[in-house]
Design goal:
Subcellular location: Cell envelope
Order of helices and strands: HEHEHEHEEHEHEHHHEHEHEHEEEH
CATH architecture of the largest domain: 3-Layer(aba) Sandwich
CATH superfamily of the largest domain: Response regulator
Radius of gyration: 22 Å
Largest sheet: 7 strands, mixed
Organism: Alkalihalobacillus alcalophilus ATCC 27647 = CGMCC 1.3604
Bound molecules: beta-D-glucopyranose
Mean pLDDT: 91
Structural class: alpha/beta
Main location: other
Protein name: Sugar ABC transporter substrate-binding protein
Shape: globular
Strand order of the largest sheet: 2-1-3-4-5-12-11
Number of helices: 13
Helix content: 40-55%
CATH topology of the largest domain: Rossmann fold
Keywords: Signal
CATH class of the largest domain: Alpha Beta
Strand content: 15-25%
């Protein structure tokens, strides 16, 4: 007994010493300008990514690690400049959520050429081998949760189903749609739903599995490009074209919170739409208020604190010369990228308080009518 305690004490001392050395090492490994981890996020214009910035800042508040966060503002050219800026600062690790998954290839290739370890954050970088790791949520599960929610709330048959998707330049948009299709397609085939706004999806409604090319054709019609304004325009166009048989009590697959609020605002003003269920994701503060107010039905909560922890944990492992732990892999069209994946949580009015307030993700005072 005694000797095993001695061993435990010894191990604790050794691991504390390792942590302390690691902390020194990380600031020491960076160049004189002192940035060891560079973080590039796609845009400040969507609350989702401002959340990530804040969570990175919170996680790094008491740390010795030197980091810099840059936003690309929805432009691959800005993104490339951001990566170059960080390379000039002497970073050892690059954490990057690309604006456009394929276009980011050349930036990460430049980083790799300088010996930098590349971690794709939330969005995969495609068609390149210049990527070491990927931290992500289970994006297929996000789409499945959205589709499942619509199924559970559908009453009767021939419920008009309006489909919307994210940007085709974002690999996640395909994963979300794939997940939603996995569960919705059988319910379209059995007559529960009738697709209201995509001739390409209607043409493929008997196919349980879609190729990427087939999904690309559907996304070409129903993409929001992750832009709420584009979502508004598309929703208005669809409602103008829809006859009374495609109104009444309807279901809307909206890919994320920003587009869900935009689409809900349009559908709620159509007098022939008597009720709607609309999905979302990201647990954005404004959408939590919409859920409390009954204007958005659900969101998929992706706890960004976990993603930040995973990304920084990987970066620190790399700085310390250790191999980060991964749980699987994603093929990016060129290689299998080692990945760490996190689960997601479905939130609606029934569990919003428990999942988002009790978990201290948000404060109750940030909402009314909770
Ligand atoms: C992210 C979503 C986000 C969307 C738009 C996706 O890649 O996974 O959380 O809502 O991009 O920015």
């Amino acid at each position: 007994m005694k000797s095993s305690w001695k061993l435990v004490t010894y191990l604790i001392v050794v691991s504390m010493a390792t942590i302390m050395l690691a902390a020194c090492g990380s600031s020491g490994t960076s160049s004189s300008s002192g940035v060891s981890v560079g973080i590039v996020l796609p845009t400040r214009d969507e609350p989702r990514w401002v959340q990530d910035e804040q969570r990175f800042k919170d996680a790094l508040a008491d740390s010795e690690y030197t980091t810099e966060i840059l936003f690309s503002q929805g432009s691959s050219a800005n993104e490339k400049e951001n990566v170059e800026t960080l390379l000039n600062r002497g970073i050892d690790v690059l954490i990057i959520a690309p604006h456009d998954g394929a276009a980011a290839g050349s930036s990460v290739e430049a980083a790799k050429a300088e010996g930098v370890t590349v971690i794709a954050y939330d969005r995969l970088i495609t068609e390149t081998d210049a990527i070491d790791y990927y931290v992500t949520f289970d994006s297929v599960a996000v789409g499945e949760a959205q589709g499942q929610y619509l199924i559970e709330n559908a009453q009767g048959t021939n419920v008009p189903l309006y489909l919307y998707a994210g940007a085709s330049s974002d690999n996640n948009a395909f994963l979300f749609f794939e997940g939603a299709w996995n569960v919705l397609q059988p319910k379209i085939a059995d007559g529960t739903f009738v697709i209201a706004n995509s001739s390409e999806a209607t043409a493929l409604q008997d196919s349980p599995e879609l190729t990427r090319e087939e999904m690309g054709r559907i996304l070409g019609q129903i993409t929001t490009n992750w832009d709420p304004n584009e979502a508004i325009n598309k929703a208005q166009t669809h409602l103008t074209a829809a006859g009374a048989d495609l109104k009444g009590d309807i279901a809307i697959l909206a890919p994320n919170d920003g587009t869900a609020r935009a689409i809900a605002d349009v559908f709620s003003t159509d007098s022939e739409v008597t009720s709607y269920f609309v999905t979302g994701q990201d647990a954005e503060q404004a959408s939590i208020q919409y859920i409390i107010d009954g204007k958005q039905s659900m969101t998929v909560f992706k706890d960004v604190r976990t993603l930040v922890e995973d990304a920084m944990g990987m970066a620190i492992d790399v700085l310390d010369g250790n191999t980060p732990e991964t749980t699987g892999s994603y093929n990016n069209g060129k290689v299998d990228v080692q990945a760490k994946q996190t689960d997601v949580i479905v939130v609606d009015e029934d569990n919003v308080k428990q999942e988002l307030i009790d978990s201290e993700y948000y404060e109750a005072s940030e909402f009314t009518g909770l």
